[in-house]
Amino acid sequence: MREAGFSYPKLDEALSWEAQQICDSVRAWVKERFMPHATRCYMDGRFPMELVPEMAQMGFFGIKTSPEYKGAGLGNFEYGVICRELERGDSGLRSFVSVQNSLVMYPIERFGSERQKSFWLPSLASGQLLGAFGLTGPEGGSDPENMKTHAKKDGGDYIVNGSKQFITNGSVGYLIVVWAKLDGVVRGFLVEKGTPGFEACPMKDKLSLRASDTAELFFRDVRIPAENILPGTLEKDKAYLACLNEARYGIAWGAIGAASFCAETALEYASNRGMFGEKLSAKQLTQQKLVWMDEGIESAQRRVLDMARLKEVDRLLPRDISRGKMANVNMACDVARLARRMLGANGIMAEYHVMRHMCNLESVYTYEGTDDVHMLALGRAITGENAF
C-alpha cells in the first residue's frame, strides 16, 4: 500500500536546496519557539515581543534587502517560504515580518535616498528598530487615493495632518512609512516615534489577529524635515502600489501556511480512533473534505511557485499578484472552516489552533485590498473598463 498523506508537500521538491533548508529551519523555529506562546498571546491580545531578538537572529528581517545594507539578499522563493512557514504559526507572526520587510524596508530601499538607505536599513535588518506602514485611512479604506491625510510644504519642512487606522506594528514601530497627499498626489514620508504631534494608539477588543499589534495613528501638525520624504515617491505616482504588491505576494504564500496547518491537524484528528473505535478518515464525507483541502492547497502552491518564477525575472504583473492574494486567501478560509467543522466541538478549543487560524484569515481576506477590490482589479485587466 502506498504511503498515505496529502500530495501538496511534494511540490517543495521544486525549491532549491537552500530554500528547502530555510523552510525546515523556519518551520522548526515556529514549532519550538512560537507555538508554545501562540494561544496565550492570542488570548491576551499581544504580540510576543520577547521573541523579536530571536527573529532577528533567524534572519527574518531584511530577507530580500541588499547585503550592502546588512540584509540577506535572498530571492523571492526564499521570502515566500519564510512567509508560508511563519503563517503556519499565526497570521500575526507573518504580518509582523511582512510589514518590516515589504512595507518598511522595501520602500526605503526602492524609493529612499542613499542617506536614508544607509542610515535606516541596517538597524531595521538587525531588528534594533521596528517599522510600520501608514497607508490605510478611516475614510478611504482599500482606496488609498481617497485618503484625507495630507501634507503641505512649510519652508524647508512638511506639515502632515490626518489619521491612519488598522496599522500593523503601529504601536511598537519606531519608524513609520506614512503616505499622505502632497498637492493632491500620494507621497511617502518617514516619521519617527516621538515626533511632536504624532500619536499611536493600540486598537483593543479585536476578535481576529489578536496576537498582532494593531494601532490607529494620528498626525496633528506633525513637522517632518524635507530629508524625510522618500524622494522616489516624488518621481513615481502611486508608488505605494509597488509596496502593496510586495506585501500581497507574501500573503499569497502565507495563506498556504495557515491552510496547511489546519488541513494537517484535521487529517491527524480524523485518523485517530474515536470513542467508538472508528476512524473518521474511513468515512466518505471526511475523505471528500480532505480531498478538497489537498486539491486547494496544491493549486495554491503551484500558483505561488509560478508567481515566484515570474517575479525572479521581473515579469510578475499586478493582476497576477491580485489573483494570487485573492484565490489563495479564499482557499485558506475554506480549508480553515472545513477543518474547524471536522474537529466538531474540539474545533473551537484553543489547543487545536484551528479556530484561531480561521478567525485570523478573516482579517487576511480583508487587508491589503479586500476580495472585492482584487476582483475589480482583475475585471479591469480583462475588460479594460474601470468598474470601481
What does this structure look like?
This protein has 388 residues and is α/β, with parallel strands linked by helices. The protein has 3 domains: 118 residues, Acyl-CoA dehydrogenase/oxidase, N-terminal domain (Butyryl-Coa Dehydrogenase, subunit A, domain 1); 105 residues, Beta Barrel (Butyryl-CoA Dehydrogenase, subunit A, domain 2); 144 residues, Butyryl-CoA Dehydrogenase, subunit A, domain 3, CATH 1.20.140.10. Helices cover 51% and strands 14% of the residues. It is built from 11 helices and 7 strands. Strands 1, 2, 3, 4, 5, 6 and 7 form a 7-stranded mixed beta sheet that branches. Strand 4 and strand 5 form a beta hairpin. Helix 7 packs parallel to helix 9. The protein starts with 16 loop residues before the first helix and ends in a 5-residue tail after the last helix. The mean pLDDT is 94.
Helical segment tally? 11
CATH class of the largest domain: Mainly Alpha
Structural class: alpha/beta
Tell me, briefly, the overall form. Answer: globular
Q: Calculate Rg over CA atoms.
A: 21 Å
Note the beta-strand portion. 5-15%
Termini Cα gap: 54 Å
Summarize the structure.
The chain is an alpha/beta fold and 388 residues long.
Key descriptive features of the protein:
388 residues, alpha/beta, Butyryl-Coa Dehydrogenase, subunit A, domain 1, Butyryl-CoA Dehydrogenase, subunit A, domain 2, Butyryl-CoA Dehydrogenase, subunit A, domain 3, 3 domains, 7-stranded mixed beta sheet, 11 helices, 51% helix
